[in-house]
Write a structure and sequence with these properties.
alpha/beta; binds guanosine-5'-triphosphate; membrane; 22 strands; 5-stranded antiparallel sheet; coiled coil; Alpha-Beta Plaits; Beta-Lactamase; 30 helices
């Protein structure tokens, strides 16, 4: 034990563990050996039991074979015998050599006897079979013999045969009864048969030598003897069987006894072995328990007692006795531990002193810290108060605003809201807080709005500003303006959104009202001009898409002013309202009726397939417009009635734009009015084109006047006889910027009878006067004639305007200007024109009748118009040398002039001959290419100075 104490703790534990392990292994080995030995014995015993069971099985099968000769049973017996033999041969551990030899010889004997028995049984079966066959054959023979005539003649023989038959049957019967085997009955039956056969042999028939009968009887006898011999032999085998059977069962009994003895001895061995095992195991168990107890005791002394001493010292130190020490005199780890512990206790005592010093310092530091905390806390409380006051203020401001202000976190839930939001949406504050913002919008849009809001939060867009529909708690929808802005924390991290919602329901209603006012007529409620323009535009797009037609009907009430004037404005209003309603009723869905002012309406008729489609609608409109209406007049309610004039244009036959269609419908309405009212008129495109062209020409000519593009050329007029230049005809030319110098025929017809032609005519007179004034200033006094159209001459203010122009150029004497009246056939009111000419004449102005002779009423003009000169048309002059008709006319005109005391001048003098001829007729005044072509004004003075008549003219 002292030695054990000297060991280290680790060694003590290792040693104890080793001893315990050795004991456990020894226990395990003993138990394993015992188990193996017992199981061996049990195996032997089981084998013996098997052998015994097989012996019983062999007995059983052998008995079955004995009883029913079952070939299967015999086969199994041989099989089991062979198995058992193998087992016995291999059982050298159980059986002694003698036992084994004796068992094997018993088994071999049994097998030999069983084989013999099987052979005997087979032979017996063969004999019995033979006896049976012979028996049947005998019966047939006996039947044959009994049937023989001769036998019937010998009753003894017959009787002997009958007896024999009976005896054979008896034998048969006796043999078939197994208990009777070998019994006296069989022996007696056999003796009787011998007796009967002897009787038969001695019978007379047998002996009489009737060969055939004798042969038959002899055969019967022989067969009967054979039968009997077979039978007896089978009986012998039956006896052999019985003895072999006995031998068999005896051997098997002996074998069984031998096996049982072996089994008993095996059981005895097993019992002895189990007893030995139990004793050994118990002994080892006791040794183990003792060893464990001894080891535990040693360990207790070596470990527990020092540890307890250490624990005691620890408790003492824990209780404040830092002088306590553990007194342990062992050399192991516990001893080391106690020494370390004692050292630690010393250190602890020293540290404690230091600690107390430090604790004092710490206490002082803590006091100062607490004071600082106190001060800081007071500051924080003050700051919190300020913050709370500020928050209160902000909340009050937020709650005062009539708008919803709220905060939304990054998941889209409302985290803060003002009281206006509670009022606006009708949710209690605690429901609003935590609610998803998107629950406030239209439920069908929730998912889309949620996605958009989350996208906004994760985007760079910091603010949204839009109008949107929201939903109150009671399900009521309302329009509001939403402003949403991303909010961030101090570190720039996104915190969510701040939202402001302002209810704009009233604003929108006001806006809708304004829109309504802007688009609808206040009196009738019909669309106004603005909305009409929009609808017409849309209708045109649809019409082009559907490839059909639409009509624009411009409707103006007839005589509406009279209603106002006679019955008052209110009555007029009533009438407008009632007629608007009726007219609207007679249109189709899709058509538009608009009031564009006063008593003017426009209907847009859509989806027409042809122009004819609009006629029934227009008829209905006319009918509705002239229906009777009861209106409140100044004199009380009265039946009033007006009618309407409608102008219609149809798109795309009229391919104009919306404005063009309106204008054309208006023009057509004007025509309807002109044609007697209460009717509709379809706009005429060709007519419109003509007017347009006329208008353009007029505008172009005005522009030419303004741009000074018109110029006057002058063609000299001469006296061919005297060689005097008598004047010049002013001929207009257009110095067109693109087309060059244009003759009057190129542009005057386009402005014929248009107001601009008057302006051009006046310009010609004014320019000629200006030119005359200029020439005069140069010393050239040259009378000038200008052409005046019938249209201009018929203007009521012509004389006045001429006077004004003459007054402008006062230095030019009126008698120096001559007006050549063109197109005299176009003069409508001869009396009026005559008066104008006389008025002009009174001013000193002379007239010439141009192209005289071309019109068939020229003579009337000559008679009634106060013209001092006749101008022979150049067409007659040019051809008079060849055409006697023209010459006759020229002659006639010259004669007329002379008769009426008028001057005559010929134009179209192209050659010297023309001049000669005219002179010969008596016409001295002339103009034409033969004299001079028309020339610019600046060339005239030189030409006048240099011109000389043809020598032949003066002759
Ligand atoms: N009662 C009423 N009269 C209006 C209103 N607006 C315009 N008027 C009058 O309607 C009349 C329309 O004038 P016109 O179309 O020239 O009169 P009208 O007698 O129909 O002439 P025709 O069209 O040539 O047959 C004018 O006297 C306007 O003063 C309105 O809102 N109410």
């Amino acid at each position: 034990m002292h030695l054990f104490n000297q060991l280290k703790l680790r060694q003590k534990v290792g040693l104890s563990f080793g001893v315990l392990m050795a004991l456990m292994i020894a226990n395990a080995v003993v138990v394993a050996l015992a188990t193996w030995s017992v199981s061996q014995q049990m195996g032997h015993q089981k084998m013996m039991t098997n052998v015994l069971a097989e012996v019983s099985q062999v007995r059983l099968l052998a008995s079955r074979f004995v009883n029913n000769h079952s070939r299967d049973a015999a086969q199994q017996v041989f099989q089991i015998l062979s198995t058992t033999r193998d087992q016995v041969e291999r059982a050298d551990a159980v059986l002694t050599a003698d036992q084994r030899q004796s068992m094997l010889s018993l088994l071999d004997d049994f097998k030999l006897n069983f084989q013999k028995y099987v052979v005997e049984i087979d032979q017996k079966a063969a004999l019995e079979s033979r006896a049976s066959a012979l028996g049947k054959y005998m019966a047939l023979q006996l039947q044959e013999a009994q049937d023989q005539t001769f036998i019937r003649a010998h009753p003894d023989t017959l009787r002997a045969l009958n007896v024999l038959e009976f005896q054979l049957m008896t034998l048969q019967w006796a043999a078939n009864i197994r208990p009777a085997m070998g019994s006296p009955a069989v022996v007696d039956a056999a003796a009787d048969i011998h007796q009967t056969l002897a009787t038969l042999r001695n019978s007379s028939t047998f002996t009489n030598g009737h060969q055939r009968d004798g042969l038959l009887l002899f055969r019967i006898e022989r067969d009967a003897l054979d039968y009997l011999a077979s039978f007896e032999n089978s009986q012998r085998y039956q006896r052999l069987n019985a003895s072999t059977e006995n031998t068999l069962f005896r051997i098997s009994d002996e074998f069984k006894v031998a096996v049982q003895q072996v089994e008993l001895s095996v059981a005895q061995v097993m019992h002895n072995r189990i007893t030995q095992v139990v004793v050994v195991v118990l002994a080892i168990f006791v040794v183990s328990v003792f060893s464990a107890w001894a080891l535990t005791r040693s360990l207790r002394r070596a470990i527990l007692q020092p540890v307890q001493a250490l624990v005691g010292a620890t408790h003492e130190i824990a209780n404040g006795n830092l002088q306590a020490r553990a007194h342990i005199e062992v050399d192991d780890e516990v001893g080391e531990l106690s020494r370390s512990f004692n050292q630690m206790a010393c250190n602890l005592a020293e540290s404690r002193v230091e600690l107390l010093d430090k604790q004092d310092a710490l206490q002082r530091a803590q006091d100062s810290l607490e004071q600082r905390i106190q001060e800081r806390t007071e500051q924080l409380v003050a700051a919190n108060h300020a913050l709370a006051a500020r928050e209160l203020l902000v909340n009050q401001i937020m709650d005062t605003a009539p708008i919803s202000v709220f905060l939304v976190d990054m998941t889209g839930r409302i985290t803060q809201a003002n009281s206006s939001m509670v009022e606006m949406f009708g949710y209690p504050m605690d429901t609003l807080i935590g609610m998803e913002y998107v629950a406030l919008v239209d439920p069908t849009e929730i998912e889309m709005r949620r996605q958009k809001m989350l996208a906004l939060m994760n985007s760079e867009i910091s603010i949204v500003d839009l109008d949107r529909k929201f939903l109150r708690a009671n399900g009521e929808e309302f329009w509001a303006h939403l402003t949403g802005k991303l909010i961030s924390g101090v570190a720039g991290e996104k915190l969510g959104l701040v939202g402001v919602i302002a209810d704009i329901t009233a604003q929108r209603e006001h806006q809708q009202q304004l829109e309504s006012i802007a688009h609808f007529d206040a009196l009738t409620g019909l669309p106004n001009r603005l909305l009409l323009a929009d609808r017409l535009q849309q209708a045109l797009i649809q019409c082009q898409r559907k490839n059909n037609m639409l009509a624009v009907a411009y409707l103006d009430l007839d005589g509406f002013k009279a209603v106002n004037d006679s019955h008052g404005h209110e009555a007029g209003d009533d009438l407008l309202v009632a007629l608007s309603r009726r007219m609207k009723e007679c249109l189709r869905e899709g058509d538009t009726l608009a009031r564009i002012g006063g008593d003017e309406f426009v209907a847009v008729l859509v989806d027409l397939q042809s122009i004819d489609d609009c006629q029934p609608l227009l008829q209905r409109l006319l009918h509705a417009a002239c229906s009777q209406v009861t209106s409140n007049t100044r004199a009380g309610p009265k039946e009033l009635k007006v009618s309407a004039s409608i102008g219609v244009t149809v798109f795309p036959r009229d391919p104009s734009d919306a404005d063009g269609l309106m204008r054309h419908a208006d023009q057509a309405m004007y025509v309807a009015k002109q044609s007697g009212k209460n009717a509709y008129h379809l706009f005429d495109m060709a007519h419109d084109e003509a007017i347009k062209t006329q208008h353009e020409s007029q505008e172009r000519m005005r522009s030419a006047l303004i741009q000074n593009e018109l110029v006057l050329y002058y063609q000299p007029k001469v006296n061919m006889r005297t060689g005097q230049v008598t004047g010049a005809e002013a001929l207009i030319r257009w110095a067109h910027p693109q087309h060059g110098l244009l003759a009057p025929a190129a542009f005057l017809p386009t402005i014929e009878d248009l107001p601009v032609s008057i302006e051009v005519g006046e310009w010609v007179i004014a320019s000629a006067l200006a030119q005359m004034s200029a020439w005069q200033a140069m010393g050239l006094h040259l009378p000038v004639s200008v052409n005046i159209s019938a249209y201009q001459l018929q203007q009521s203010r012509f004389a006045i305007r001429l006077n004004e122009l003459l007054a402008t150029y006062a230095d030019v004497h009126p008698s120096w200007i001559q007006l050549e009246v063109l197109e005299t056939s176009a003069l409508e009111d001869m009396g009026k024109v005559g008066q104008v000419m006389r008025d002009c004449h009174a001013m000193g102005v002379h007239f010439a009748l141009d192209d005289f002779g071309t019109g068939y009423s020229s003579l009337t003009y000559l008679k009634r118009l106060p013209a001092s000169t006749l101008k022979i048309d150049q067409s007659f002059v040019r051809d008079m040398l060849d055409d006697p008709g023209d010459l006759a006319i020229v002659n006639g005109v010259v004669g007329l002039a002379r008769s009426f005391s008028r001057e005559v001048i010929a134009e179209g003098v192209e050659t010297c001959l023309h001049g000669e001829k005219l002179l010969s007729i008596g016409c001295e005044l002339a103009q034409g290419y033969g004299i001079a072509r028309p020339m610019p004004a600046h060339q005239i003075p030189e030409w006048v100075a240099n011109w000389h008549q043809e020598a032949r003219w003066s002759a």
